[in-house]
Amino acid sequence: MRTAGVILLAAAVLATASEAQESTPKFSAAYYKCEESAAGSDMAMTECASAESERQDKTLNSVYRELVTRVPPDAKQALIKSERAWLSFRDAQCDFEYQQVGGTSAHVVGTECELGLTIRRIEELNHSLDLERQFEPKRPKRGSK
Questions:
Q1: 27: which of 14, 31, 49, 111 fits an S-S bond (Cβ 3.0–4.6 Å)?
Q2: Spatial distance between the Cα atoms of 107 and 47, rounded to a whole number of angstroms
Q3: Each residue of 98-114: pLDDT tens digit?
């Protein structure tokens, strides 16, 4: 019985991870409206992406804070380590894209890189929150066997 539960869980995790990789970032309606009115102007598009980055960063921080409060103590340090590694990855990847493009579009590309990766990170952390909500009630309380 326990093996069947583990197999079902593994299938659900793999399906969710696969869906997250295939999905496109979920921008706000305000971002799409802003991009439409930017009409291809690099400066306007950067302003749109910067405003959206602020919105998404607030969401990321909110989801992260909730997850930190919910995970068991032994997983908390792994989560913190994961978040620090992700921040390093995000910065390095977006710096690469910025350098790769160069010129007047580099700032737009760099900002949109950070935005897209932030939205994907929100999805990853939300997935972790879903797992935590699923297993939190089943986890033995500290001191009980």
A1: 31
A2: 10
A3: 999 988 888 888 988 99
Half-sphere exposure (Cβ direction) of 91: Cα atoms closer than 13 Å = 6
The structural domains of the chain, with segments of one domain joined by +, span: 27-138
Nearest to 52 by CA among 70, 18, 29, 71: 29
Closest CA to 94 of 82, 107, 84: 107
**27-138 maps to which CATH number?**
1.20.1270.180
- Please, are residues 47 and 34 in contact by the beta-carbon 8 Å criterion? yes
Enter the pTM of the model. Answer: 0.74
Q: What does the alpha-carbon distance between residue 58 and residue 56 come to, in Å, rounded to a whole number?
A: 5
SS3 content of the chain, % helix, strand, coil (to 5): 85, 0, 15
